[in-house]
Design goal:
Elements lengths: L1 E4 L6 H15 L4 E4 L9 H8 L9 E3 L17 E4 L2 E3 L3 E3 L5 E5 L2 E2 L9 E2 L1 H12 L9 E4 L24 H10 L3 E4 L6 E2 L18 E4 L12 E4 L9 H4 L12 H14 L56 E4 L3 E5 L9 E5 L11 H20 L2 E9 L7 E7 L5 H14 L5 E3 L15 E6 L4 E5 L8 H7 L19 H15 L9
Parallel strand pairs: 1-2, 2-3, 3-5, 7-10, 8-9, 10-11, 11-13
Antiparallel strand pairs: 1-14, 4-5, 6-7, 12-13, 15-16, 16-17, 17-19, 18-19, 18-21, 20-22, 21-22
Helix pairs in contact: 3-4
Family: Belongs to the CWF19 family.
GO molecular function, one term: RNA lariat debranching enzyme activator activity
GO biological process, one term: mRNA splicing, via spliceosome
Length: about 525
C-alpha cells in the first residue's frame, strides 16, 4: 500500500499530518512518493526541525529533486541521498526489496543548453531509457515519477479541465512514459488534480497485449480549492504477477496518447534496418512474414477473375440499373465509377463505386480493387492541388452495394492526427472499438467476406477498423467529420437533410467533372 502526493512546497506539517490521520484510520502504508516541488521559497523553518532530527516523517518518504534554482541548495548530492530520517532524495532508479520498480526523473525540461542543474535534457532521458530498456525481458516499470506532466497525455481521454494537455508539460516526459510503460505515472506542478482513463501500451491486432498505464496528476498540498493532492493505491510488483492478470484490460481503457511518438520512433528504427514489408492476417499466426508478390507459397497460378454477384432486387448504385442517378456521375472507368454524393457533406464529397454489384471492398476482384486504388490516388492528387486531404470511409452494414465515401478536409483546418483522434474519441464515446491496423495491411486481411464492418482510411495510408457485432450508427462516419472538432457542420450530418434540387446537383457534377479532368485516368486509358 502506497501513497503519492503533489507539490509539498515546504508544507511538511500539512502533508505529514494528513498521512498520520490516514494511517490512524486505514492502517499503515509502506511509503510516500512525492512529485513536483517538495521544497518552497519559505521552507527553511519547518525543514530545519526534520533535518536536525527534532521531528521525523511518519512514513518512508521519497522526493524528487529541485525544479528551480532557489531550492537547489536543499539537495547536496545530485545522485540521491538521505535528506533527513525517513526522507530520501531519489537520484536514479529505485527498486524496493519487494521487487517494486520505480523510475523517476527530477526537474523540468531544459529550455537551454547546457541544461541547468534543476532541469533534464534529451540526453538525460535517453540514458534513463537505455538503462532500463537494456535489461533482459524488460516489460515496463511499476511506477514512474516526474514533476512535469507528459505533453498530450489528454489525447483520446477524459477532459483535464482547465489544463490544455496539448500545450502543457514535457515532450521528453511523454517519450519516457511511452518507452518505460509504467503501470502508474504520477506528476504535479500544474496545481490541478487529473486522473486520466487508463491507456493501452500495445497496438491492438498488431502486438501482444500488455498492461495498461494509469496517469495521475496531483494538486499542491493544502491548496485552498480542496483539489486532491494525496492518492492512496495498492500495487503488486509486476515481477510477482501472473501474466494473464497483469495484461487485463479495464472496460474504460483508451488508445495510447503517445501513439504518434511511438510510430515516429518505430519509423526511425525501420529506416535504420533493411526494408521489409509485413502483413497482418487474422487467419495466420501473428508476426509471420508473408510473401509480398501477391501469391501464396507453392501456388503460382493466377486467380480466376470472379464475376460479381447479381443484386437480389433494385440497386441504386449498379451503373446499369435504371435507379442510378446518372446526373451525379463524374467519371467512369473500366470497373468503377465516381459520382458526387447525394446530399453530400460538402459540394466535392464523392463516392467511389464498382460498376458491377459488389457489397464491400472485401468482395472485390483484383481488377476492380486495382481500379479503386487508382481512383484513390487520383483523388488524393486532385484534392491536394486544392489544399485539401481526403478521408475515406466504408460502412459494410445495412447496405448492399459498396460505397466508398471520400470527403475532402482543408489542410489548414486540421492534421491527419486530429482526424484520427476525432474518430477514435467519438468511437469511444459510443462504445465502438475502432482500432488502428498496420499501415502496409489492407482491409481484406482483417475482415472476412460477408462480415459487417466500418473502415476509415486517411490519404496518409493510416487505417482504422471496427468489426460490427451488433447495432451500429448509420451516420457515424459522416457525424465525426461534421462535428465541431473537424468541419463544424453538425447540421449536415444526415444526408437526407442536405438534398439539393436535381438541376443544382447536375451543375455541381458538371463543375466537378471539368475540374477533375486533368487527374482522371479514365480519360487517358
Amino acid at each position: 500500500r502506497r501513497l503519492a502526493c503533489g507539490d509539498v512546497e515546504g508544507r511538511l506539517e500539512t502533508i505529514f499530518g494528513r498521512v498520520r490521520a490516514i494511517q490512524a484510520k486505514s492502517g499503515r502504508f509502506d511509503m510516500l512518493l512525492c512529485v513536483g516541488s517538495f521544497f518552497g521559497a519559505s521552507s527553511e523553518a519547518e525543514w530545519a526541525e526534520y533535518r536536525t532530527g527534532a521531528k521525523k516523517a511518519p512514513i518512508p518518504t521519497y522526493v524528487l529533486g529541485a525544479n528551480d534554482q532557489d531550492t537547489l541548495s536543499y539537495f547536496p548530492d545530485v545522485s540521491g541521498c538521505e535528506l533527513a530520517e525517513n526522507i530520501t532524495y531519489l537520484g536514479g532508479v529505485f527498486s524496493g526489496c519487494s521487487g517494486l520498480q520505480v523510475a523517476y526523473l527530477s526537474g523540468t525540461e531544459a529550455q537551454e543548453q547546457p541544461a541547468p542543474a534543476h532541469s533534464f535534457s534529451a540526453k538525460d532521458v535517453a540514458e534513463l531509457k537505455t538503462s532500463l530498456l537494456s535489461t533482459p525481458n524488460f516489460r515496463g516499470v511499476d511506477i514512474l515519477l516526474t514533476s512535469p506532466w507528459p505533453r498530450d497525455v489528454g489525447t483520446f481521454a477524459n477532459s483535464a479541465g482547465e489544463i490544455d494537455t496539448k500545450k502543457c508539460g514535457s515532450k521528453l516526459v511523454s517519450d519516457l512514459a511511452a518507452s518505460l510503460k509504467p503501470r502508474y505515472h504520477f506528476a504535479a506542478l500544474e496545481k490541478a488534480y487529473y486522473e486520466r482513463l487508463p491507456y493501452r501500451n500495445h497496438t491492438v491486432l498488431q502486438e501482444t497485449p500488455q498492461h495498461v498505464t494509469r496517469f495521475i496528476a496531483l494538486a499542491d498540498v493544502g491548496n485552498t480549492s480542496k483539489k486532491k493532492y494525496l492518492y492512496a493505491f495498492s500495487i503488486v510488483p509486476m515481477s510477482a504477477m501472473e501474466p494473464a492478470e497483469l495484461v487485463k484490460q479495464p472496460q474504460d481503457v483508451t488508445e495510447n496518447p503517445y501513439r504518434k511518438l511511438r510510430r515516429e520512433a518505430a519509423k526511425a528504427k525501420a529506416e535504420e534496418e533493411p526494408a521489409s514489408q509485413f502483413f497482418f492476417d487474422l487467419n495466420k499466426q501473428q508476426g509471420k512474414k508473408r510473401p509480398t508478390d501477391g501469391k501464396e507459397r507453392g501456388d503460382s497460378k493466377p486467380k480466376q477473375a470472379k464475376k460479381p454477384p447479381q443484386p437480389t432486387g433494385p440497386c441504386w448504385f449498379c451503373l446499369a440499373s435504371p435507379e442510378v442517378e446518372k446526373h451525379l456521375v463524374v467519371s467512369i472507368g473500366t470497373h468503377c465509377y465516381l459520382a458526387l454524393a447525394k446530399g453530400g457533406l460538402l459540394p466535392d464529397h464523392v463516392l467511389i463505386l464498382p460498376i458491377g454489384h459488389y457489397q464491400s471492398v472485401v468482395d472485390l476482384s483484383s481488377e476492380v480493387l486495382e481500379e479503386v486504388t487508382k481512383y484513390k490516388a487520383a483523388l488524393k492528387e486532385f484534392f491536394r492541388s486544392k489544399g485539401k486531404r481526403y478521408v475515406l470511409f466504408e460502412r459494410n452494414y445495412r447496405s448492399q452495394h459498396l460505397q466508398l465515401q471520400v470527403i475532402p478536409v482543408p489542410l489548414d483546418l486540421c492534421t491527419s492526427e486530429d482526424i484520427k483522434e476525432s474518430f477514435i474519441t467519438q468511437a469511444q464515446e459510443q462504445q465502438i472499438d475502432l482500432l488502428e491496423i498496420p499501415e502496409h495491411s489492407d482491409i481484406t486481411q482483417v475482415a472476412q467476406p460477408g462480415s459487417p464492418y466500418f473502415y476509415v482510411e486517411l490519404d496518409t495510408g493510416e487505417k482504422l477498423f471496427h468489426r460490427i457485432r451488433g447495432r451500429f450508427p448509420l451516420q457515424f462516419g459522416r457525424e465525426v467529420l461534421a462535428s465541431e472538432a473537424l468541419l463544424a457542420l453538425p447540421q449536415r450530418s444526415d444526408w437526407r437533410q442536405c438534398a439539393s434540387p436535381r438541376a443544382e446537383e447536375a451543375a455541381q457534377a458538371r463543375a466537378f467533372r471539368l475540374d477533375f479532368q486533368p487527374f482522371d485516368f479514365s480519360l487517358r486509358d
